[in-house]
## 1
Amino acid sequence: MSKEIAVLMAAGLGSRMAPLTKKVPKPLVKAHNRSMIDTVISGLEKRGVDHIYIVVGYLGEQFGFLAEKYPNITIIENKEYNEKNNISSIHAVAEVMGTADCFICEADLFVSDPSIFEAKLDRSCYYGKMVKGYSDDWVFDLDEKGFITRVGRCGTDTYNMVGVSYFKQKDAKIIADAVLEAYKHKGHEQLYWDEIVDQQLGKLKLVINPVTADQIVEIDSVKELAEFDPDYEKYN
């Protein structure tokens, strides 16, 4: 296997998880006695990813123990997390993104099935879960050959984003370079990094790596956390 790295996006405020995130960043919130970020790291470690970069912002100092625990983890500070959208987290790691095949993962996921990271990934891809009916979440449109033609919000009977993606080295560099270019223009402050990917689809050949909803649990609010882990029912 060629060299692989991973970028974990851990800079956000996690405001929908308040009051739990008043003192603890969302990726370090525990469910069933495990922090969410730990479930992601464990899966990447099992795959044998060479190096993991954790991009931190809000309460970023609390992630320092991970670099002490894992010799292959580097903490990178996103100093713009409070003024710009998550394009700023990719900008913070742009110089390393084109150096190897690269996972990009949200750090506030609960990965129930770490085997999702053991998939044979021959192409750049987004992990996606099929959702029947209408969804107002981030979704993918596909052509008849299965290539992604749109990354954006809202769709019907299609794959939804689950917070994990994988880019071959060449494609990771295309995205990093496009982020650096976007930074030269006014308005980049409000962009999600996935919008940059959408703009570059003419240069990228992205597919879906299917997963099921129970393999990656997305927990966006205290209510959802309480439904997943009864220990939090008092916050619901």
## 2
Amino acid sequence: MRDLLELKVTRLIDAPVDTVWRIATQRMSEWWCPRPWTTEIVELDWRPGGRSAMIMHGPEGEEHPQEGVFLEVVPGVRFVFADAYRAGWVPQTPFMTGIFEFAEEDGKTRYTASARHWTEEARARHEAMGFTDGWSAVAGQLAALAEA
């Protein structure tokens, strides 16, 4: 059942895990959404229960706020957030849980980003929004920063 609700992209990044992790977590505004969109970091409290809040800005003035909490943060390995809650465990309408994993592979980093959805409809909507192209572009942007 999980696979029916999940979308995933993976990329091998030619940089060590510690480099990719540092860039992924400390320079998120530089890679988080596909260009020409930009990311405004509101707050990233890197601990379970900590707030994860950003605003994605589009080239035509669009704004897409993202508000959630971190469920898990394992430095150098993975971070997981969900939008089913705001900080303080305040419930809100859920869309997805994001899982970002970093694994060593022959001196490089296997980056895997997954979106698990609450419903098949949400998964289909995310896929139709351009999940594969968008999240692949983001992986490429992260790779470009880490490999520089």
## 3
Amino acid sequence: MTTHPVTVEVNGAVYERSVSPRLLLSDFIRHELHLTGTHVGCEHGVCGACTVQLDGDGVRSCLLFAVQADGSSIRTVEGLATGPDLHPLQAAFSAAHALQCGFCTPGLLMTIESMLDEMSTMTEPEIRETLSGNICRCTGYQGIVEAVKATVARNEQEGR
């Protein structure tokens, strides 16, 4: 079987692997790098559970091959917290009880976090539009919306 070299930076660390050309980025992250926070749900790009940030943009890792990410910077949910300190969005999710089973949470966090940098202020309709590509079967989304609103308000207060 033919393999291809892949070099990526994931959460600040550089990884070099030789992979099958058909290996999905989600499987590369989970099985080659052992970062299991990236969840695989539908494997069709619909549910958003596998969302990671590729060069700063939220992408569905189940729709990309690992070789397509060669030379890129990837951020997974494991890269949000700084040591024992939660990322402000993670802390807001906890405070707003914005998760139940937690399966969708990593994808939601990565989707929202990538949008926070682009939109310094987000209205509730914009938040809901941003969330529309991520399926959560447990929460009803209200806690998630409240967590995002709290994070946006905190960012505005801190001048971000």
## 4
Amino acid sequence: MHKISLTAVTICLAAQLTTAQIKLPSPSPGATIMQTVGTTDLTITYSRPSLKGRAPFSDTFVPTGKVWRTGANGATAFTTSTDLMVNGKTLPAGTYALLSIPEKSDWTLIFSKNKTVSEQTYKQEEDALRVPIKSVTGGEKIETFTIGFSDLTDSTAKLNIMWADVKATADVSVDVTKNAAASVDKAVAEKPEDAAVLQAAASYNLSKGRNLEQSLGLIDKSITLKESYRNLYVKSQILAKMGKFTEALPLAQKALTMGQTTNDAAFPFFKDGIEKSIAEYTAKLPAMPTLKGKAKKKA
């Protein structure tokens, strides 16, 4: 009898364990959206409830004028890899709970430092940022709650919160130049002996016209570590940017010659640029005195 009881208990425990491991459909399934704006990675993890005949932003379902977790189940998580501007206000890099206060027209968008916050535990003093955002009604009806990004440029985007026929939007932007420069400097600090990294850093600085003397040192080191037509061409461009066309020309010529003998499949994309640079540098070389002019001077 004792053995039978133990067997029964074992079977029950096994059944419970098996049930706990079964993944069942959720009425508000989870979703993660990742978007890169410039050099900044934005990630939102949230749950997506559906209308199922209900009308949100009313007195009975997701009421207006009250803090909402902006999703379902747990807190909606918002992560930005760099500092971010939201409607003109700074949100430091990090992970936050994304909340909102829906209204008939303007909403309030909230980024809370409390990552596990709920409507019941929300405290305004834990806000990292709160901003007013515009909402419009009357658009396409969205059955399942949706958060997404649109109108992307290399430094801006729109963050959209959509449900039913309501769409609330915030403008987000990043300082691409500052972030890219920081990324370049970090890469050089972490890999100071990597020829490709040094070349990329010098090339980026060249494109922005920044730190040319420092970039010349970086590209010189890149060439010393592993000479290629690419880093020779970058050095010629830096020197030309500094007005040193006499030094730039032979480097560009060497880059062209080396590139023509390389097996690099990308060389055809560089060839026209190098040839145009050679022509430009040649045209800007100081004029050499003619033999006739020298003869007159001697007389």
